[in-house]
Write a structure and sequence with these properties.
The chain has 2 domains: about 5-145, Response regulator (Rossmann fold); about 150-270, Rossmann fold (3-Layer(aba) Sandwich). It has 8 helices and 12 strands. It has helices at about 5-15, 20, 40-60, 80-95, 105-120, 150-160, 175-190, 210-220, and strands at about 30-35, 65, 70-75, 100, 125, 140-145, 165-170, 195-200, 225-230, 235-240, 255-260, 265-270. It has a 6-stranded mixed beta sheet, with helices on both faces. Strand 4 (about 100), helix 5 (about 105-120) and strand 5 form a beta-alpha-beta unit.
Length: about 290
């Protein structure tokens, strides 16, 4: 199977094989707007490299389709919605971009959607995840090639959702985190598990003591119940009578993970705690 961006590049290049583009002789300008600065920098670099590979693959290295050169214009939205919005407007109007791709953060992507509509030009969203991008905020100029929050939520719910399981969520306090929890709540309901608490923290948070205290305070006190916590930030969760723990990264290439405390409840949380065996789960992205 070809990597996503190679396959996407091939599909994108195919757009310009139509007769409407063949009639023109000028270059086709593509704006790529990604969060090269900020916590999602790693994803932006992958997007930039993968997109270039996709275009090279689709054109057999010529960077030309139907006799027209492809010109790539890259911009750094800095993980700031207002910057992303202004850069997309600049790309369409000042740089003459025919089509745009971006953004990395869901918040940035959402800010760019109305710009595509106002300029009546296509914006292909990748890799931003929030459901609302192709949900209530969608317009006819928006296309997406990545997964969405609901797909993430269903897989998480199926993995941990069982009867007599209580779940608390900790998510980033912006579109990505809130859309995920909304979808997760819906996906978890049929499994018999209960979502007992939702905690949100700003993306730049580094001290989660207060957040975890609120989660622990909301957890069921019945020691016979099985409790699990869906987590995102870097931390270690310790359970009584158990050596199982989990460490994970906040706003990095890891998905929210879960720790299970059988017949006990978590007793304390310490980011600096050196747990013996550490269980880490990874999945594609956090945006």
């Amino acid at each position: 199977m070809k990597p996503l961006w190679i396959a996407f590049g091939a599909a994108l290049a195919g757009l310009w094989s139509a007769s409407t583009f063949a009639a023109d002789s000028g270059p086709v300008k593509i704006a790529l707007i990604a969060d090269k600065t900020g916590p999602l920098e790693a994803y932006a670099k992958q997007t930039s490299a993968g997109f270039a590979m996709g275009l090279a693959y689709a054109t057999s290295g010529t960077m030309e389709v139907a006799g027209r050169k492809l010109t790539l214009i890259e911009k750094d939205s800095q993980t700031k919605p207002d910057v992303g919005r202004n850069l997309l407007n600049e790309a369409y109007n000042d740089d003459g971009a025919d089509i745009a791709v971006g953004g990395t953060s869901s918040a940035v992507a959402l800010a760019m959607l109305p710009v595509a509509q106002d300029n009546k030009k296509v914006l292909i969203v990748e890799p931003a995840v929030a459901d609302s991008i192709t949900g209530d905020k969608w317009n006819r100029y928006i296309f997406r090639t990545s997964r969405n929050s609901t797909q993430d939520a269903v897989s998480n719910a199926l993995a941990i959702g069982k009867a007599r399981t209580s779940v608390a969520t900790l998510a980033q306090d912006y579109a990505f985190g809130r859309d995920f929890v909304t979808a997760f709540r819906t996906a978890l309901a049929p499994t018999g598990a209960k979502l007992v608490f939702e905690e949100y923290a700003p993306p730049a948070t580094t001290d989660f003591t207060a957040s975890y205290q609120r989660i622990f305070d909301a957890s069921p006190r019945n020691r016979a119940a099985r409790s699990s916590f869906s987590t995102g930030p870097a931390a270690a969760i310790r359970c009584r009578r158990s050596r199982r723990s989990i460490r994970n990264d906040w706003e990095s290439p890891s998905r929210p993970a879960a720790t299970f405390c059988r017949r006990s409840r978590p007793t304390r949380i310490s980011p600096a705690w050196k747990a013996p065996p550490t269980i880490t789960t990874r999945s594609p992205r956090i945006r």
